[in-house]
Design goal:
The structure holds 2 protein chains of 2 kinds. Chain A is mostly helical. Chain A is built from 12 helices and no strands. Chain A is globular. Classes of the chains: A mainly alpha, B alpha+beta. At the A-B interface, α7 and α8 of A face β6, α2 and α4 of B. Chain A: Keywords: Cell inner membrane, Cell membrane, Membrane, Transmembrane, Transmembrane helix, Transport.
């Protein structure tokens, strides 16, 4: 028993070292900008760069719109599949997995052919139109994560009975989704939202090929031309991700528990 | 005769090639408590779901208070329903759950709050308004579900096996509570159950269902004492079934294990030589001869189970075994296995199963 515990700690220590050593090395390197002493100069440079603020702000806004679009598409779809069309579940799952195997560049070239300035729907002819296409593209990229998160959330509640209970009390579909289903899968939706946020913040291909001022191309540009700032940016990105994860953990404490949970 | 409040007329439901409910007819009077009783898969829940609007009948119609509701959506029917799995909304407090239907109906908040408080008093949980469903026991959750169903004052209350997820003690107390609330409000109620004791104890009438059909509709007394079919007789209560052969149809003589029993007026057109299934409830049988019991059969004690206040005795008669219960008497020891015994009964209590 004691020896089992010892080896468990050894495995834990190895795992922790594998995870933390590169991180510590990155932090350490990011603080070496000033010769001979540790400083936060790289962070100051990055955070003070107007391009950082502009691109980060742009990507955050794009992420928010992507999340809204994702929720509007995925929650009703996953709900309806569970409630009325369970036989279509494998098909929908397959479709949601496609963005993992079809590269983003294919979507962008598809966009250029479909929505170029000479096409009947010239979305790419204007900045706003291109932004809209970028958000739609991001929603597609995030689809596997958002769908799985929401579907897992729906699995924890008795969708059919709750729907019928709301219906018999006079509720229409809008009320059922907004007042019964969505609040009960909110944590799952938030998980999907944070994953979407992480994908959008770091996405490079689409933003770059559509020539949008997003954070991904900025990261690439800094990485290619500077020494210490990319390390500082990597740590900032880590901090944002961890912040998101912590938020999921905190919010999940407030999640409604199932009424059917045995006492 | 007064118009029925709920009228289910020639209703049929098929899923693909399978017909689960066929030609179901039932009229329910205002304020009546009717139970659908039957084994799993007999179609009782499907009929209830058609009344609720969750399933659309393949044929037939459903009329409530003179209005054809067959094609109406569930949220247009003004029907309350309690589900087996409680189905309380986990994200809402007890008060919000009860007030859900009122809010959807657009009732002003002050009125809705008053109605919620009234409902909490009715189910005797006045302090529970701020709790969440997961903080309540199964029995409490089901009472909240009942309060939620009746808060919007529905025309009809549907109860879909509301007690089957609860433990035995809570089940008994809650069924009495449901019945007393139903009587107090005078709400027409349909109750689905597979538990015969539940159905017998709280219903005005019972529809015993089998194979998608109503085998018999009647009061609990009629269902128990005058079962119309073999299935009803077997399904409701404990029954001893004996095989008999008609020896003289005119005088109603039937031979049971080489002993003769008189069933005058009960043979319903059977001819001499026909084989019949004869049934006797355990409480209609006494051990030994008793005055007023005109028929008897001899056998041998096969089993004796001492259950405290009651002793269950099984008597072997030819190839059959008959169960009967006798009250425990400290002065009289229970019969011994292997002893010769005679059972007596009134021939009027014997049922001929068709």
């Amino acid at each position: 028993m004691k020896s089992g515990r010892f080896w468990a700690w050894v495995v834990f220590a190895l795992g922790a070292a594998y995870f933390f050593i590169p991180l510590i090395a990155t932090v350490e390197f990011s603080m070496r900008m000033r010769r001979g002493v540790y400083s936060l100069d790289a962070y100051k440079v990055v955070l003070g760069d107007p391009r950082f603020q502009a691109t980060f702000g742009y990507s955050v806004l794009a992420a928010v719109f992507t999340i809204i679009l994702g929720v509007l598409i995925v929650v009703p779809t996953a709900y309806w599949i569970r409630l009325r069309l369970p036989q279509l579940r494998p098909v929908v799952e397959f479709i949601t997995l496609l963005p993992l195997v079809i590269p983003a560049i294919v979507i962008v070239f598809g966009y250029i052919r479909m929505y170029g300035s000479s096409s009947p729907l010239p979305f790419l002819a204007s900045g706003r139109g291109t932004d809209a296409l970028l958000v739609i593209g991001y929603a597609t990229l995030a689809l596997p994560y958002m769908y799985r998160a929401v579907d897992t959330g729906l699995r924890t509640i008795d969708v059919r009975t709750l729907t019928e209970a709301a219906q018999i009390l006079g509720a229409g579909w809008g009320t059922i989704i907004t007042r019964v289903i969505l609040p009960n899968v909110l944590i799952a939706v938030l998980s999907g939202a944070f994953l979407t946020f992480a994908i959008v913040i770091g996405e490079f291909t689409m933003a770059s090929l559509l020539n949008r001022p997003a954070f991904g191309p900025y990261l690439q540009n800094i990485g290619a031309n500077r020494a210490y700032e990319p390390a500082a940016l990597a740590i900032i990105a880590f901090a944002i991700t961890w912040g998101c994860m912590s938020l999921i953990q905190i919010l999940s404490r407030f999640a409604p528990r199932s009424a059917n949970r045995p006492n | 005769m007064a118009e029925p409040f709920l009228s289910i007329q020639q209703v049929r439901k098929s899923f693909g090639a399978t017909t689960v409910v066929q030609d179901f007819n039932l009229d329910v009077e205002p304020g009546e408590f009717v139970s659908f009783l039957g084994p799993s898969g007999c179609g009782k829940t499907t009929v209830l779901r058609m009344v609720a609007g969750f399933e659309e009948p393949s044929a037939g119609k459903i009329v409530v208070a003179g209005k054809d509701i067959t094609r109406l959506k569930p949220n247009q029917r003004n029907v309350g329903m309690v589900f087996q799995a409680y189905a309380l909304f986990p994200n809402l407090t007890v008060a919000q759950n009860i007030g859900f239907g009122l809010k959807v109906a657009g009732m002003p908040k002050a009125d809705a709050d008053r109605r919620v408080a009234e409902m909490l008093d009715l189910i005797k949980l006045p302090q529970m308004g701020d709790r969440y469903p997961y903080q309540l026991s199964g029995g409490q959750q089901q009472r909240i579900a009942l309060a939620r169903a009746i808060a919007p004052k529905p025309k009809l209350l549907l109860l879909d096996e509301p007690l089957s997820a609860l433990d035995a003690k809570v089940r008994v107390s809650l069924r009495e509570e449901i019945r007393s609330i139903q009587k107090k409000l005078g709400i027409t109620t349909i109750f689905v159950t597979h538990d015969q004791e539940e159905a017998l104890s709280i219903s005005d009438r019972i529809a015993v269902m089998y194979g998608g059909k109503a085998e018999q509709v009647g009061t609990p007394f009629e269902i128990y004492n005058r079962p119309a079919t073999k299935f009803v007789a077997n399904f409701v209560g404990t029954l001893n079934v004996l095989e008999g052969t008609v020896t003289d149809a005119a005088s109603g003589k039937v031979r049971v294990n080489a002993q003769e029993v008189s069933l005058k007026g009960k043979l319903n057109g059977s001819k001499s030589g026909d084989t019949l299934s004869l049934a006797l409830r355990p409480e209609a049988i006494s051990l030994g001869r008793h005055p007023g019991r005109d028929s008897s059969l001899s056998g041998e004690i096969a089993e004796v189970h001492f259950l405290g206040s009651v002793i269950r005795v099984r008597v072997g008669i030819g190839g059959s075994t008959v169960s009967l219960d006798t009250f425990n008497s400290p002065a009289t020891p229970p019969p011994a296995v292997g002893e010769k015994a005679e059972i007596s009964f009134s021939s009027g209590d014997m049922l001929v199963l068709h």
